[in-house]
C-alpha cells in the first residue's frame, strides 16, 4: 500500500529546482562561452586544460551573452528563494534528519559500496535513504551555497571586493564558481542515475508523494539495473540484514 513519502512543499521545490538549475547551468555556460578561458588576455592559468575551448552549443541556453545573463540572473533569484523555502521547511518539519549523515556513516557507506560491487548479498538496512544517498543530498546544498557566494563575488567584484579578494581575486572566484557548478552537475547526474537504476519507484514519490515500501531498494534487494542482472542477483530479501557485516 502506497504511503505519502514527500510533503507537497518538498515535491514542488524539487521540481522548481530542476527547471531553474537546468536554465542556470545552460545560461551560465553560454556566458562562459563569451570568454571561454580563465586567464586574462596575455596571461596563463594553471588549472584549466581547455583554455579557449568553448562549451558545445547544445549545452548552452540563452542564445547570446545578454540573453543568457538575463536568464541567469532571473533564475538566480528563483533558486535562492526556492532554496530558502525548502531549507526552512525541512528544518521546521524535521525532514533534515533523513538527509544528513548519521553515526556510522563511513561503515554504512562501505557496506552499500560492497553491496553494489556484489561483495555483499543482502541490502544493508537503510531507512528512507541509504548512506550514499545521504552523502549526496547533504553535499548538494553546500555546493549550491558555494555557487551562490562565488556568483555574487563575480557579479559585483568592485562593490564586494573583500569577498572577491578572499577567493583569490576575480579570476579565481570565476574559476571556483565554474568548478562548483561542475561538482553540482556530477552530483545531480549521480542522483538521476541512481533513481533510474536502483529506485525508479521514487519518481512517483517525488511527483505525487506516494511510495510503496515493498518496492524500496532494501525490500527488493536492488542493485543498479537489477532487471538486467542474472536471476541469482534478483532475489528479494526475506529477513532483515544488519547495517554492517
Please tell me about this protein's structure.
The chain has 245 residues and is an all-alpha fold. It has one domain: Fumarate Reductase Cytochrome B subunit, CATH 1.20.950.20. The chain has helices at 8-33, 65-93, 105-116, 131-155, 161-166, 170-197, 202-207, 217-220; strands spanning 3-4, 210-211. It has a two-stranded antiparallel sheet. Helix 1 packs antiparallel against helix 2 and helix 4 (131-155) packs antiparallel against helix 6 (170-197). The model has no long low-confidence stretch (mean pLDDT 88).
Q: Can you tag this structure with a few keywords?
A:
2 strands; Fumarate Reductase Cytochrome B subunit; two-stranded antiparallel ribbon; 56% helix; mainly alpha; single chain; 245 residues; elongated
The span between the termini is 31 Å
The domain tally reads 1
Biggest sheet: strands, sense, closure?
A: 2 strands, antiparallel
Approximate shape: elongated
Number of helices: 8
What is the radius of gyration? 21 Å
Strand content: under 5%
Q: What is the N-to-C succession of helices and strands? A: EHHHHHHHEH
Write the layout of secondary structure elements.
Layout: E1 3-4, H1 8-33, H2 65-93, H3 105-116, H4 131-155, H5 161-166, H6 170-197, H7 202-207, E2 210-211, H8 217-220
Antiparallel strand pairs: 1-2
Helix pairs in contact: 1-2, 4-6
Structure described in brief:
The chain is mainly alpha-helical and 245 residues long. Helices cover 56% and strands 2% of the residues.
Amino acid at each position: 500500500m502506497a504511503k505519502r513519502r514527500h510533503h507537497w512543499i518538498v515535491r514542488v521545490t524539487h521540481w522548481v529546482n530542476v527547471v531553474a538549475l537546468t536554465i542556470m547551468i545552460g545560461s551560465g555556460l553560454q556566458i562562459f562561452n563569451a570568454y571561454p578561458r580563465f586567464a586574462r588576455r596575455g596571461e596563463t592559468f594553471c588549472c584549466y586544460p581547455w583554455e579557449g575551448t568553448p562549451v558545445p552549443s547544445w549545452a548552452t541556453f540563452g542564445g547570446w551573452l545578454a540573453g543568457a545573463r538575463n536568464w541567469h540572473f532571473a533564475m538566480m533569484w528563483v533558486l535562492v528563494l526556492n532554496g530558502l523555502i525548502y531549507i526552512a521547511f525541512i528544518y521546521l518539519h524535521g525532514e533534515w534528519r533523513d538527509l544528513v549523515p548519521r553515526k556510522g556513516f563511513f561503515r554504512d557507506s562501505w557496506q552499500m559500496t560492497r553491496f553494489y560491487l556484489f561483495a555483499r548479498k543482502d541490502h544493508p538496512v537503510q531507512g528512507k535513504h541509504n548512506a550514499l544517498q545521504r552523502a549526496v543530498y547533504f553535499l548538494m546544498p553546500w555546493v549550491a551555497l558555494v555557487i551562490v557566494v562565488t556568483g555574487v563575488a563575480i557579479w559585483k567584484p568592485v562593490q564586494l571586493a573583500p569577498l572577491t579578494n578572499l577567493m583569490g581575486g576575480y579570476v579565481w572566484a570565476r574559476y571556483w564558481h565554474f568548478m562548483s557548478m561542475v561538482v553540482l552537475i556530477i552530483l545531480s547526474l549521480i542522483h538521476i542515475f541512481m533513481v533510474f537504476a536502483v529506485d525508479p519507484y521514487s519518481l512517483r514519490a517525488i511527483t505525487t508523494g506516494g511510495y510503496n515500501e515493498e518496492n524500496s531498494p532494501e525490500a527488493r534487494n536492488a542493485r543498479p539495473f537489477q532487471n538486467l542482472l542474472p536471476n541469482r542477483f534478483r532475489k528479494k530479501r526475506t529477513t532483515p540484514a544488519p547495517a554492517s557485516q
